[in-house]
Design a protein that fits this description.
The protein is α+β, with helices and mostly antiparallel strands. The chain contains twelve helices and 15 strands. The longest helix has 45 residues, at 186-230.
Length: 392
Amino acid sequence: MASANGGVPLERKQAIVSALCKSRSLDATKFLDDAGSDIKSLSVNIMKTAYENNEEFNKWVAFAEKFPSDSEACLKSLSQLNEYLTDYSVLVGGGSKPSDADIIVFSTVHPYLVSLPNTDRNKLPHLLRWVDYIQSTHDFGELFERIVLEKAPFDPPLAKQTAKVDAESSTKKAESSAKKAAPNGKAANSGADSEKKTDSSKKQASGKPEAATEKKKVPEKVPDDKEKELSVSLLKIQVGLIRKASKHPSADSLLVEEIDVGEGKCRQVVSGLAKFCSPEELTNRLVALITNVKPGKLRDVVSEGLVLCASNADHTVVEPLIVPEGAKFGEIITFAGHEGKPEDVLNPKKKQLDKITPNLFTDDKGVATFKGVPFMSSAGPCTSTIPNAGIK
């Protein structure tokens, strides 16, 4: 058998090169001519070429290179990755084990995922499943902090069924032994019947009250939660003074207001009022502001509240609620009979605001109400020039 440079036989080297190229869909003839190279150099060259020609691998390398650092753009990229992993266990390959592309992307997204709040993590179930898979199949030592996931306990139904069958089998064997032990079987049967009756009476004595208790608990609990979700007391509505109003830099229909609610600094609020009010009309005006909504961006401008406005049925006339003169900015609007504590921050997932606003409206005199109960400030009720209007 011939050899190259007195080392590895040429035929063996050709077989290795051919096998490596075939497994990576490469043309072996491009590498077989380099017979003078050692196996390591040939293998590295083949692997390098394979990666350069692998579109899937290169796609995820580009994803890692372009991964944003801005929090909002980062969350968007993580959501896209989560969507992709809906149908795949790993990024590249057949799914039996993570590929090099998986390791590259995992290393890229880990610092962002580990600091992500649980509210955002819960929106990325497929991504977290993939992360857990990578963590479980690779030992990175102390390189990456392990992301701990809460997994639901699983009790196989088969185990319960097997236990039930074993219990029934043991009972039957015990009854059979008792019959054999008694002279004519009657005494044993009598004892078994008595035991069954006792067991039955125990079930009747203990089972029904428990069931009744459970039935009572369910209807009592549901209305309480429902009533709490629909109560206006969940909202923190404060009197605010608009110190400054201006046009939104990139949206003609929006205005940006700096609103003072007595916190030492103004809240920035974005409102869709540009078609109905000028910045000059809003400046130095008192408004009713929901201050416990979750801050968010409207066309790249952060908004930290919601100005409550009345509008007619076809939404052609819209105006902020009128807070009476004499009300102090920062004070909380109250509702008689609804003295509950407001949420610190409304939970968007529960859609609490969406369930409350259908019950906010002005009456036939223009008084702002929740289910007919007026919005009250220290100087009197909030009103609107639009009677029988919706408020949101």
